[in-house]
Amino acid sequence: MLYPEHKPVPDKLYANEFLLRPICASDVNLDYIAVMETKIMLRRLFQSDWPPDDFTVDDNLWDLNIHVKEHNERRQFCYTMMNLSESTCLGAVYVRPLRIPPPEWTIRRGDFPPPVEGEAAIDFWVIPPGVIDDLDRRLVDTLLDWFDQDWDFPRVSYRTNEGLPRQIEVLRESGLRERYVIKRPNGLPNRILYSQ
Fold this sequence. Notes:
Layout: E1 13-14, E2 19-22, H1 28-37, H2 39-46, H3 57-72, E3 77-82, E4 89-97, E5 106-108, E6 120-126, H4 128-132, H5 135-149, E7 156-161, H6 165-173, E8 177-182, E9 191-195
Parallel strand pairs: 6-7
Antiparallel strand pairs: 1-2, 2-3, 3-4, 4-6, 5-8, 7-9, 8-9
């Protein structure tokens, strides 16, 4: 369990131009459109071939049901990012347990304390038109406040990798600092964790 049972899990976050809320099965079509529009970036983010070119709405529904189950069990949380009318999916935010590989795979940066039980790692993505409009920057600024004020993690890190220079730029410009570089095998871009 990522988040203790006695602590309430934040339900919704309204910002000036978007809403974050737990993803649900009824989001399948809007989420599918956003995922396929962003598939090249998502493959870089997750360092995999997901979503494949032949990814279907039914495949997406299977994924969403897993996210819902994990959310209900407090193992990890997936929030969809919608416009305020909830007619367009703009992206997603994932709240997962922080797992640091063994020292031979990691390079520690800065003066951060070692990880402790219950830390969270955040992954996020925004559809391409949102990136062009700097929505990803505004999302990160919103997330920093949200996790500081409404969640109760001992520390939160934001995860990206060297194959996503835009995310690196956005995280650095938000005031976050490199915490760890995690070396990846087979020529994959190294992962980077940023924290306050």
